[in-house]
Amino acid sequence: MIIAANFKTNHTRAATKAYLAKVTAYIAEAEISDEVMVFPPATALCRSEGDVTVGAQNAWPTDNGAYTGEIGTEQLDEFGIHTILIGHSERRHILGESQEVVAEKFAYFKALGFRIVYCIGEPLEVRDAGSETLMAYLAEQLEGIDLGYGNLVIAYEPVWAIGTGRVPSENEIELIHGALAKLTKAPLLYGGSVKVGNVAPILALKHVDGALVGSGALDPDDFCKMIATAKQINKQEV
After folding, report:
1. Which residues participate in substrate binding (predicted)?
2. Considering only Cβ atoms within 10 Å of each terminal Cβ, which end of the chain, N or C, has fewer?
């Protein structure tokens, strides 16, 4: 499984360093074999530590240049970072990234061999319009994306569930992930109000290969509990 923490605009460099120290120590102590990722804010980017992969929440598709407020691969290379989130709903809906921009980023970082965690998800009005409308909306978010890329991870995050405490039913998650599994062999993560109290039944679903966690993972102790849950579920599947 893959358990990933997206800090968004949270934690300082010092807090991130302490977080990573606690998580890497836990992984070693508990002999965790699952893939663990942490996506800190740009000011706290650092080299991957132990068995935790540090990734970037965002970067512009360039080495360097005149892109105020952005970072490029020149900055990522300084820390040996080759993992990135692309297409997160907050980039799409708050910061206005179009599918064309998202696809351009994907193509650029794919060419460099990055591990890409590609995010898709729908707002509430789309979900309420029915399954056909929902799947068409998700299909639009896959336009220009190579679903056969070997370093691809897809994270399904319904927009209406992010940070709201609301989560789709297990059946709804399984239906979406099952449909996506017909399109790609990439690991499929679920995200959207994942927390310690609900991560177990979500991770146990057939087509769920892990979780992308936001606020529910800001506390390293909670994140370690989620990692432990993933390990336990893996044992049960053996």
Report:
1. 6-8, 163, 193
2. C
Q: pLDDT class for 235, splitting at 50, 70, 90?
A: low
Give tens-digit pLDDT for 154-166.
999 998 887 777 7
16 alpha carbon, distance to own chain's centre: 17
Question: Does residue 169 come out as left (phi exceeding 0), alpha (psi in the -120 to 50 range) or beta?
Answer: beta
pLDDT at 160: 83
Convert the pLDDT of each residue in 187-209 to its tens digit. Answer: 999 998 899 999 999 999 999 99
Q: Where in the sequence is the domain holding 224, given as residue range(s)?
A: 2-237
**Residue 163 marked in a binding site:** yes
**Active centre residues (catalytic):** 88, 157
Write the DSSP string, 76-122: HHHTT--EEEES-HHHHHTS---HHHHHHHHHHHHHTT-EEEEEE--
Give the domain CATH number at 136: 3.20.20.70
Please, which residues bridge with residue 83 across strands? 115
Instruction: Taking the CA atoms of 121, 149, 236 and 27 in sequence, report the sign of the dihedral they define.
Output: negative
198 among annotated binding-site residues: no
This model's pTM is above 0.70 = yes
Residue 79 marked ligand-binding: no
Rounded Cα distance between 204 and 236, Å, is 9
- Predicted confidence at residue 128, as pLDDT, reads 86
Q: Residue holding tokens 């800090």?
A: 7
